[in-house]
Amino acid sequence: VMLINGVTWVNDGTILVDSPFLLEPTSGAPNRIENNASIVLGNGSAIQDNGGGGGTALINEAAGTISDAGGSGWHASIATNFADSGTVSVSTGTLDLGATTTVPDSASFTGPGTIDVQGNLTATGANVTLSDILTVSGSLTSEGNLTVTGSLTWEDQAFLNGPGTLTTPAGSTVTIAVGYAYGVMLINGVTWVNDG
Questions:
Q1: Quick one: which of 4, 133, 154, 170 has the fewest CB in 10 Å?
Q2: What is the phi/psi pair of residue 78, to 5°?
Q3: Are 100 and 124 within 8 A, CB to CB?
Q4: Closest C-alpha to 19, from 37, 1, 39
Q5: How far apart are CA 99 and CA 166, in angstroms?
Q6: 104-114: average pLDDT
Q7: pLDDT of residue 180 exceeding 80
Q8: DSSP-assigned states of every residue in 13-43
């Protein structure tokens, strides 16, 4: 399905996404999905901005959940600007976040699956805790206090951006992958407190 001409879809039920979900750019207001209930992403599915419409296209409200459909080799992506105030649950496989993602205090990343931050994820709240397996190949920004309690992997040439604090507590595991350049670069006054 393609959303066009500045439409807003408010979901209070369940959306099952089995193929790419395009939010076509317009010259006016951006198209958007406001999720108050459930979006289930099938294997190979995507919610994406087809060419750059601007604005925040996917809003997961505090009562909303975005989850995987499960299955061997599950992989899906959110490749549009994404504001998450609810729950993102990945029980298996990998969910790619390819654009700009913002998470306040109420946001929750859960499950044994992997979330791969390929764009920029910004923790906007005073105290944000993410408990999923997190891989960062783009940038991770903390404006307040961000805690990552699970496994955190920095891919080559990733960024940790301030001005806030990242805490990796006792029991967490951090891996820094070094390629031809650098593993992770700390910028803009960020503080990383490692207790793991």
A1: 170
A2: -115, 105
A3: no
A4: 1
A5: 21
A6: 93
A7: no
A8: SEEEE-SEEEE---SSSPPEEEESSEEEEPT
Angle at 21 between CA 75 and CA 121, to 5 degrees: 60
Q: Give the residue from 38, 48, 45 showing the smallest Cα distance to 17.
A: 45
Spatial strand order in the sheet of 191-194: 127-130, 145-148, 165-168, 191-194
Is residue 162 helix, strand or coil? coil
Mean pLDDT of the chain: 90
Measured CA to CA in angstroms, residue 188 lies from 27, 146, 159, 164 at distances of 33, 15, 10, 9
Relative to beta strand 165-168, strand 8-11 is unpaired
Distance CA(151)–CA(136), nearest Å, equals 11
Task: Pull the structure tokens for residue 189.
Answer: 């006054």
Measured CA to CA, the distance from residue 153 to residue 157 in angstroms comes to 12
Instruction: Tell me the average pLDDT across 162-177.
Output: 95
How far is 189 from 133, CA to CA, in rounded Å? Answer: 25
- Residue 157's CB: how many other CB atoms inside 10 A? 17
Residue 30: what pLDDT? 75
CA-nearest of 53, 54, 62 to 34 is 62
Distance separating alpha carbons of residues 25 and 177, to the nearest angstrom: 36
User: Does the predicted model carry a pTM greater than 0.85?
Assistant: yes
Q: Where residue 55 falls among pLDDT bands split at 50, 70, 90?
A: low
- Specify whether the CB–CB gap between 155 and 174 falls below 8 A: no
